[in-house]
Amino acid sequence: MPIYLPTLNHDLTDFPAVHNALTDPDGLLAMGGDLSPQRLINAYQRGIFPWFEEDQPILWWSPSQRMVLNPGAMHISRSLRKSFRRQNFTLSVNRAFAEVIESCAEPRDYSDETWITDTMQDAYLQLHDMGFAHSIEVWQDGLLVGGLYGLYIGDIFCGESMFHTTTDASKIAFIGLQQHLVSIGCKLIDCQLHNEHLASLGATEISREAFITKLNNRNATIKPQQWQPQALVLDYF
């Protein structure tokens, strides 16, 4: 059955109301527009994110259920603690953003395709230069073996993607992220869509309406010094 999707024009604030998103596929809201930094910021502030493949137009989503985690509420298993100590990981904030997003864009074992296109990478690199997009890096013997990136829009961190080339490195990056967010007073990590990996770490689903309420009630103040490139020492191990 054909579906009707609003097509975005050149107005950077022109997004349909999120309650108009489709139920099948869940959360699909609009298509078109561009990935300019201001449009992306406007989208995230409204609970909307882009997700599309190379041969598709830009698709914008706001799912009916949102996967979230309260910083400080992460489940850290005994085996993960042992893995961290055994593998001698070190962590950092914003010391290798370009390398992290490039690694996140690499094909996975289960697919040769990636939704993090070159255009997408360029857009988030611009957001990083503007102080909105940030990364957590995991290192082992001087090599980048894991990490994640996302946007901080004041009180809420919108996670985008993570990667690992060594067992547990992406989980360790997530632990590092939530510790850093606790230290700067962040209230919520937006994980977007449900997956078992995040659920095992303590993420849960809330309704789109509840998530939008949290967005609207957040303190949007961003302090650049909170995201200066720095080493990150975990307190949990």
From TrEMBL:
SUPFAM superfamilies: Acyl-CoA N-acyltransferases (Nat) (SSF55729). InterPro entries: Acyl_CoA_acyltransferase, Leu/Phe-tRNA_Trfase, Leu/Phe-tRNA_Trfase_C, Leu/Phe-tRNA_Trfase_N. It is found in: Cytoplasm. Its EC number is 2.3.2.6. It is an enzyme of class 2 (transferase). It catalyses: N-terminal L-arginyl-[protein] + L-leucyl-tRNA(Leu) = N-terminal L-leucyl-L-arginyl-[protein] + tRNA(Leu) + H(+); N-terminal L-lysyl-[protein] + L-leucyl-tRNA(Leu) = N-terminal L-leucyl-L-lysyl-[protein] + tRNA(Leu) + H(+); L-phenylalanyl-tRNA(Phe) + an N-terminal L-alpha-aminoacyl-[protein] = an N-terminal L-phenylalanyl-L-alpha-aminoacyl-[protein] + tRNA(Phe). GO terms for molecular function: leucyl-tRNA--protein transferase activity. Its main location: cytoplasm. HAMAP family: Leu_Phe_trans (MF_00688). Belongs to the L/F-transferase family. Functions in the N-end rule pathway of protein degradation where it conjugates Leu, Phe and, less efficiently, Met from aminoacyl-tRNAs to the N-termini of proteins containing an N-terminal arginine or lysine. This is Leucyl/phenylalanyl-tRNA--protein transferase.
